[in-house]
Amino acid sequence: MGTAEDNDRDSSDRKRRAYEDWQLDADSGRHETPSEKSDRQWTDILQELRVMQTGVQLIAGFLLTLPFQARFDRLDPFGVDLYLGTMLLAGVTIVFMLIPVALHREFFGRHLKYQLVDSGHLILRTVVWLVGILMASAITLVFYVVAGPIAGLVVALATVLGLVIALLVYPVWRLKRAREHEKLSDVY
Fold this sequence. Notes:
By secondary structure, the chain is mainly alpha-helical. The protein has helices at about 5-25, 35-65, 75-105, 115-145, 150-185. Helix 2 runs antiparallel to helix 3 (about 75-105). The mean pLDDT is about 85.
């Protein structure tokens, strides 16, 4: 537990960061208070979650029906393990998608929007990866069952490579390019 002095220092640091953020926004042409910025960012987080939610629900629903299909009994032990792992991953992904809602309920009315946005951002980054891995796992399961183990392995490797490129390499590359462009804009 922190002392009152530590809490005051943390509060002061948060206010300073929020003020600095406001200054940056004001300099960029977006004139909003720290509170307005937090509201906008929270809305962005919720919108991103909504976009992913439907896909996760569809995959989870699809997975829930599989054990009741006639061919499911013919799955080998690896296929059953792949199915169960994918189903578990769908459940974990849904739980992570609920965390921002639970945080919002707990933080509601307590003037902690900055902390809510900060936590929501970290959780959303995790959810993006969970959704990607869930998609890769579900596609692998389908190829494994329909086309066999070799096809499942090839698709798994290709999908994971695609995820790394789409969720890691490309965003980092685009951020680097944006920063370089920003530096060039400052020069001219």
